[in-house]
Write a structure and sequence with these properties.
Layout: H1 2-15, H2 25-40, E1 44-48, E2 60-65, H3 88-94, E3 98-99, E4 106-113, H4 123-126, H5 130-142, E5 146-153, H6 160-163, E6 170-173, H7 181-190, E7 203-204, E8 223-224, H8 233-236, E9 246-248, E10 259-268, E11 272-281, E12 290-298, E13 308-314, E14 323-331, E15 337-339, E16 349-352, E17 355-362, E18 368-376, E19 380-383, E20 397-398, E21 404-405, H9 435-439, H10 445-449, H11 454-459, E22 463-464, E23 474-478, E24 483-489, H12 507-511, H13 516-532, E25 537-538, H14 562-577, E26 582-588, E27 601-603, H15 606-613, H16 615-624, E28 628-631, E29 635-636, E30 639-640, H17 645-655, E31 661-664, H18 672-678, H19 690-698, H20 704-711, H21 716-731, H22 734-750
The chain binds beta-D-glucopyranose (BGC).
Beta-D-glucopyranose is lined by residues 77, 117, 472, 490-491, 539, 586, 665-666.
Length: 751
């Protein structure tokens, strides 16, 4: 009986929503041109011996597309029904090359690798396949003047055999470059665009070279993050013996021109450090140059990686001889470590360690020059948030000298008591206060919510059915209260619905641009397409860390580095939200493995979690104020992320001040009441009533109140708080504004 009622409400909500609009032609044209530019400006030229590239325009190319399957993007929620897909053969032709299998001028070999959500990639795919090796051997035997390899992959590959082979002249790393990616390859190969991308994640020789590999494939057990803070280049550049494992380091990327960098100033101020760098194009062709600024710390009390990225920026297009001054800055708080061992005497604090900090300026972690330094005489405690994550089962953690030590501390995390609250028992047929009245300041949110029963408030804590078969459902959707059905849609690389839209480059490629302004433009373009096709909340960006080279979703995430992840995400969110569409940071947090992702249990120290896995989220939350955050399927230190009070309320809301909506990833297995008690507002989604049926069966949902009060963890007050957050988010949507205006208009014409 109860189930049937719940289904009826869902059906009413669904009926009020019409299918999305097609994109306008001008938007399609703009999207394509921008997607091409974004891809070309992000592609990374890894090798270019003897100026193999660019090729003379209009020349002949013998193309060896080994699998013949161009990958515009990865599978799963970032898949896009693209307006247009230009593969590599078409792209090379589009810029004027002649594809001629008989020619022996230049061989272009394309290596493709698939990657998708909910699968990790196999170790076999990390190596060149037999077919790829045979193809290369055949090409070498045929005596080509030039050999160029293009890598179109969603994950790292062992490039050592190509990097070390003198007959391979050039390697271009393009990740998944979107619908216009083939044309962008044409732009780079022909020199129409001078490459300026850099690796945002290290490429090493063997899967086992990444310390995260131990335990990664043990799908039965928990995932111990024993490498601790030494993730990516923080591992390869610090741990004795690890440097030799790298084929191409973090930050590596070549150009067709040369640049001179001159640091004119390093100013250490009270709370920030400013670094001014003059960049001059000393070569013969125009180009853009990103500048990466790192620090290296010595003489502290705590463990530190040998080098850490602190800031970066990119010039505009510099003509030969031209220069531009870039001012990079970072806060001293960014240099602080989270003391989870008490070495500073202040456990649970962010501490600026004592010692000498050298500022290094350049490109890759290995191509830097000291630019200045400053000293911190004694440790400074910057903040003491205390411990929010329980760390009692991580057996050991890696130290900078390559040894391991125990993680001695255990901090229990308990959900807070949220207080009791009163709730209306019988539903109102026609509420006297609507959400429009709240928006107009005629009533308070409290007065508005006082009219709802617990069941109605709970309705706001579920996602509702998808209308479009490729869609992701809505949030809100209580028409009698004036609560619009805010439509969500994936995802990071384009508007993923049954309608066509622009296929943008994947996040990992975009981050390789090292150009925050480009990320803002991508966000703006996505926001424009979402608004035009009638969607309110984009389920993007994803900013999990590239912890392991074969995680099935690395292409969808930005980098192994939290600063790159945070800056990229913040700019993307600002762009999306500038169009009146909400962005959703995902997946909060950890979630560094895809196979069995619903059951992944990460075991990680509080220091590593805060410094590596949360830092990007923190920056994006504080700088860009996203409307929403999606909690991850995975668990951390004994709790699933969505039911982790310390994570979702303690850190995200209390420490960082996040005031938007938190939603689960799709179809989580945890009962709703436990997620609500932790501060996770919405369980996504109710797919054709499935969740409601589950709710009734499992005893959450309609019977939530009894269960919650029994458990003494959740009260109606918590449900009400989440319902209020949902209403506030709905009030920000363009849909709500439209419906409110329509209602005012019909009221006026009725008078
Ligand atoms: C993915 C999310 C995505 C959601 C909706 C989930 O399986 O993990 O990233 O937004 O589906 O498609």
């Amino acid at each position: 009986m109860k189930t049937r009622k719940a289904l009826m409400v869902v059906a009413v909500a669904a009926a009020s929503f019409a299918l999305a609009q097609e994109l306008d032609e001008a938007t399609v044209a703009k999207g394509a041109a921008f997607s091409r530019r974004a891809a070309a400006e992000s592609m990374v030229l890894l090798k270019n011996e003897g100026a193999t590239l660019p090729l003379a325009q209009g020349g002949k190319i013998a193309l060896y597309d080994v699998t013949g399957k161009y990958r515009a993007g990865g599978g799963g929620s970032s898949d896009v029904k693209a307006v247009r897909v230009v593969d590599i053969p078409s792209g090379l032709k589009e810029v004027g090359f002649v594809l001629d299998p008989q020619s022996r001028e230049t061989a272009v070999v394309v290596i493709e690798r698939a990657s998708r959500e909910s699968h990790d990639n196999s170790e076999e795919w990390f190596e060149l396949s037999n077919k790829e090796r045979e193809t290369l051997a055949g090409i070498k035997a045929a005596g080509f003047a030039k050999i160029v390899v293009v890598c179109n992959s969603g994950h790292a590959i062992n490039l050592a055999p190509l990097a070390e082979d003198p007959s391979v002249g050039a390697i271009l790393w393009i990740w998944y470059p979107g619908g216009e990616g083939g044309a962008a390859v044409g732009d780079i190969v022909s020199g129409k665009v001078n490459p300026s991308g850099r690796l945002a994640s290290t490429l090493a020789r063997a899967v086992r070279d990444w310390p995260s590999d131990s335990g990664f494939r043990d799908y039965r057990g928990a995932v111990p993050y024993e490498e601790d803070i030494f993730v990516g280049y923080r591992y390869f550049e610090t741990i004795p013996g690890a440097k030799e494992k790298v084929v191409y380091p973090f930050g590596h990327g070549l150009s067709y021109t040369d640049f001179r960098l001159q640091t004119s100033d390093v100013r250490s101020q009270e709370s920030e450090v400013l670094v001014s760098v003059r960049v001059t194009n000393t070569g013969k062709v125009a180009g853009k140059r990103s500048v990466l600024c790192y620090t290296s710390q010595k003489g502290g009390k705590a463990e530190h990686p040998a080098i850490e990225l602190r800031a970066y920026g990119k010039t505009g297009l510099l003509q030969p001889g031209a220069s531009e001054e870039l001012t990079l800055s970072f806060a001293k708080r960014d240099l602080a470590y989270f003391d989870d061992e008490g070495v500073s005497g202040n456990p649970g604090s962010w501490v600026l360690d004592q010692g000498e900090y050298t500022v290094l300026v350049g490109g890759s972690v290995r191509d830097v020059a000291p630019a200045g330094s400053f000293t911190v005489a004694a440790p400074e405690v910057l903040e003491t948030p205390g411990f929010k994550l329980r760390t009692d089962t991580l057996a050991r953690r890696l130290r900078a000298d390559g040894s391991y030590t125990a993680v001695p501390l255990a901090y229990p995390t308990r959900p807070g008591r949220l207080g009791k609250g009163k709730v209306r028992k019988t539903p109102m047929e026609t509420p006297s206060v609507t959400l429009y009245d709240v928006a107009d300041g005629k009533a308070t949110m409290d007065q508005f919510l006082d009219q709802m029963t617990l069941k109605e408030m709970l309705f706001l804590c579920y996602g509702h059915p998808r209308v479009d078969p490729n869609g992701t459902g809505s949030i809100g959707a209580l028409a009698k209260f004036g609560i619009s059905a805010a439509q969500t849609c994936d995802g990071p690389a384009g508007i993923r619905r049954s309608i066509k839209s622009t296929y943008f480059p994947c996040a990992a490629l975009l981050a390789s641009s090292f150009d925050p302004a480009l990320l803002r433009e991508v966000g703006t373009a996505l926001g424009t397409e979402a608004a035009e096709t009638d969607f309110d909340i984009l389920l993007a960006p994803g900013l999990c860390i590239h912890r392991h080279p074969l995680c099935g979703r690395n292409f969808e995430y930005f980098s192994e580095d939290p600063l790159v992840s945070g800056v990229s995400a913040a700019e993307y969110v600002k762009g999306v939200q500038s169009r009146g569409v909400g962005a959703t940071l995902k997946h909060f947090a950890g979630n560094n493995r895809e196979a069995t992702r619903r059951f992944e249990k990460d075991i990680v120290s509080e220091r590593a979690f805060r410094e590596i896995y949360l830092r990007g989220f923190e920056r994006a939350v504080k700088e860009a104020k996203p409307w929403a955050i999606m909690t991850a399927y995975s668990g951390i230190n004994g709790y699933n992320c969505g039911e982790h009070y310390g994570l979702v309320t303690g850190i995200l809301r209390d420490e960082w001040g996040f005031d938007g909506v938190t939603m689960t990833d799709w179809w989580t297995t945890v009962p709703l009441w436990r997620e609500l008690a932790a501060g996770n507002d919405v369980k996504m989604p109710s797919d054709r009533g499935e969740i409601d049926r589950k709710a009734a069966k499992e005893g959450f949902g309609v019977t939530l109140a009894e269960r919650a009060e029994d458990a003494d963890l959740l009260t109606v007050e918590a449900v009400r708080t989440s319902a209020a957050r949902v209403c506030r988010m709905v009030m920000k949507t363009l849909r709500f504004a439209r419906e409110k205006a329509a209602r005012a208009e019909s009221a006026a014409s009725a008078q």
